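Input sequence (331 aa), recorded before submission:
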Amino acid sequence: MKLQMSRIIKEVKDTLKETLSTTWTLLKIMIPISIIIKLLSGLGFVDIIGNTLSPFMEIVGLSGELGLVWGAAMITNIYGGLLAFSTLAISHSYSVAEVTVLATIILIAHTLPIELRIAQKAGVRLWYMLALRIGTAFMLGWILNKIFTTFNLYNDSAKIIWNPGKIDPSITGIIINELKNYALIFLIILGLMLLIKLLKISGFIDKLNNLLEPGLEFLGMSKQSAPVAIIGMTLGLSYGGGILLNETKSGKLTKKDIFMSFSLMGLSHSLIEDTLLMLSIGASIYGILIGRLILTIAIMLILIKIISKISRQNFQKYLIAKPLRRVIKKE
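Predicted structure, token format:
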């Protein structure tokens, strides 16, 4: 009994240590970038990005002012984009088709400064992740717009039920809100770490890996990457990426696993919370979830073909950043 209790205490201590390490790694990325973003936003940087995007919004069939919404989401986060959208929606009426296209491109490309830095820190080239997410966002937005206009779909006005709530714009309010977010990140990562430990002890992880192995191999990954990929896809890239950073340091995954995992999570992540958010502004689930998943699978299959055609040396040179090149695990 004492031996069992001692083992439990050790597992809890190890989990807390891993959680603190993972959270601290994330916060070292998030805090400085968040401060920079706040400063740049105050200087009108988001407006500049929005105005720059305005001419390109026509490519996906949207009006220019919605470039500000996507710009806000890309630079800050989804909530920043939705806040900008709620302001525009007061004086503009948007169809379900327009909202679906907008929601879809936001879902693929948002919170870029933080999420791209997490991917880069884990060892995936920044230019690649940037091109993948923005390029795929435009691609899916264009495809959905063509389908909606060709078949005359979703022309009704979107019903918006999302409410941004009260926001304290003071410095004190911003700091308190950020501290709450960081505390929540710690608690979620702690919960995830404990859950993974319990699932490993119970043997569920092994069963899950065996179940998902065919699908993951189909998408170019090994079964060892299954738990992280699932966390990223369901809860978000920051959480999946944070745990993946921990796995990168341990050398448990191959360079290809990490590269393909971030590619998958970059295109389809936080499928639960973010999907519900976009449904609350009137988007169609066929675009924001079904369409997104279909294109994600297609892009992953294309990536597998591309990687199989290039040499290992070029793969590491052009697609893998320095931190991941030091991974010792034999490929």
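Checked by second reader. The radius of gyration is 21 Å.
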